[in-house]
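Worked example 4.2. Below are the chains of a multi-component assembly; read each line carefully before continuing.
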Amino acid sequence: MDNKSENKVVHKWGMVIDQDICTGCQACVVACAMENNISFVGEEDAGYGRNMQWIRVERFWEGEYPEVRSTPFQPVLCQQCGSAPCEPVCPVFASVHSEGQQINMQVYNRCVGTRYCANNCPYQVREFNWRDYERPTPLENQLNPNVTVRRRGVMEKCNFCVQRIISGEDKAKSEGRTPGDGEIVPACMQACPTDAIVFGRLDDPDSLVSKLAKDGRGIKLLEDLGTEPAVTYLKGGSSYARNG
Amino acid sequence: MPEMVDTTIKTPDEFSEHLMFDPLPRGKMNDMVMESMQITSWKFWVVAGFLGMVVLVCLFGAWGYLINEGLGVAGVNRPAYWGIFLVNTVFWIGISHAGTFVSALLRVFKAEFRRPFTRAAELMTTFGLVQAGLSIFMHMGRVWLFYFLAPYPNERGLWPNFHSPLSWDFLAITTYLLASTMYLFLPLIPDHAMARDRSKGWRKTLYRTLALGFRGTEGEWTHLRTAMNIFAFAILPVMFSVHTIVSWDFAAAMRPGWSSTIFGPYFVIGALQSGIAAVGMVLVVVRATMKNMKYFIRLEVFDSLGKLMLIISMSWAYFFFNDYLVQWYNGDKFTDILLHFHESGPLGWMWFMMLIFNIVIPWALLWNKKIRRNPAILFTIGLLINVAMYFERYVIVPISLTINRMPFTWRLYKPGIEVWLSLGTFAFFVLLYMLASRIVPLVPVWEVQEGQMAHSLRKVGKATVPAVSELE
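Applying the procedure described above to all two chains together yields the following structure tokens:
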């Protein structure tokens, strides 16, 4: 018991996504799929709303072509809500909050596939394994050994690359320090060519992510629902220059 | 207003249209019920065989395929994570409501017209719940782990999440299934004893077991009456709670179109709407196909059921418009889009059919005594009401799921293998009912006889007036 509470590290991890500099290149989507062993569902299922992406790039525009007032791309991933609607509705506690990281976790082994969490997620970022998807050889060599491979009937979603967070935290702990800013990088942030995605500890006021989250351009998705998202979107100022 | 009082004096013959005033000797009535169970025509076995095939292929075959392949073979997608399986669950729980309603509520209120068909309605409860249970398991992604939902002690100290409406649902449906089965069984004991004394062979063995040694002594009757009384009162709150809890699966979620505080009573009324209509349909079929049933199930039964259907249709309309008005009034952007999507979206025809079948047709027809007393027309109205209530659940589940707060994900749901599995549940329900009609006395003989003993005609001057005495 003592050992358990000793291991409890309370970091609040969060993310900032700058829509003004996102180019919509989808590199984050690809990197995420590689890192997290996400299945490829094929054309037909993807066209029917069963594409598995833990992060998707939404595109919005106003007006009719060619007078399109384009707004930036909006990458949407799990917002890791502080008060998550998906958690209380799961009948078997497969959707739970991690105390140490303040992330919403999905326990694949516990999930029975009622899909209530996905219905109740206002961001629609939960992905369901509708089938056992094929992974023809030699693609199995590409699987990340640190991430569980999911089978049919299980819900899954973005967890801020929790495997990277845990190993980063463990490394820092063995060296007797807390993880430094920018030390732990999720796959989407790593792949982003324009550095539109910034990840870090929101409980550390000096971290880049905390400073950016307080930026005047910051908004949270569907903030009025009271879900307390850990992801902040920046948009609206084109003359902005980052100082971090 | 004296001119509105019916002053015509009925002759004793005119009372004989009522079952309660048209008694037969006990032995004869018992034989009639035994006959109705034992005489089976070849047509019965043809239909039962066909339904059995449908159940094998569409229910168990298709379900096996679904389990093996995953829910990809069904039509569910994002954002409609719930589809026809949940529609079926709500629909069948709705059907199962009528049995208890008719039996317990009318028993508590001593409505005499209930006597010949309480059993027929209670059987619907049990068999409807079987279909609801199957449907909810079909819906699960990993049904082989369904026991995770049950609170059972295990070495990991894991329990179900009692915050989840689905956990409440699981407990409520299980409670209702157990309670309604016991409530079905209790009044069956004297009828099983009756059947035991009048049968041979395997039937004798079966009924001897089921009758639990009932001999009809005064003490046994007292115990039985007390038990049934307790159950009739206790099962009513359970019945209301079950569909309220089913509605909380939706109402407790934070989705436009779902988070509505009136869903509880709205769902209960919806359940009665489809359930009472289904009781009417079943009685029409039973009366037309089973031997001797024209004596027990009379036009007065359809008359009373028709009135009930009309009243419940009016209540449903009230709750429906109340639900719409309150949701519209809250002014949420996405709720507004959703409400317009209901009536003008690609499946708007379903929404209009729902209103026509649920409100216009019952209101236009059921006020008329002649129509209420015509089994064929009543059957048709009941069928239309059930279609409408199926549409209502379809509007609430997959159609409402189409619209959420992330417009990028909006997509319409197209049913896949669910259609076959739905057919399977319907066939299974009818099959179970047909098989039960061969084994279970479909008319509670003792209850009819009790009623006939309590009712009598008295001469007051020149007039014949009905009198009902309180037994017990």
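Take a moment to check your reading of the output against the notes. The longest strand of chain A covers residues 13-18. The CA atoms of residues 78 and 123 of chain A lie 7 Å apart.
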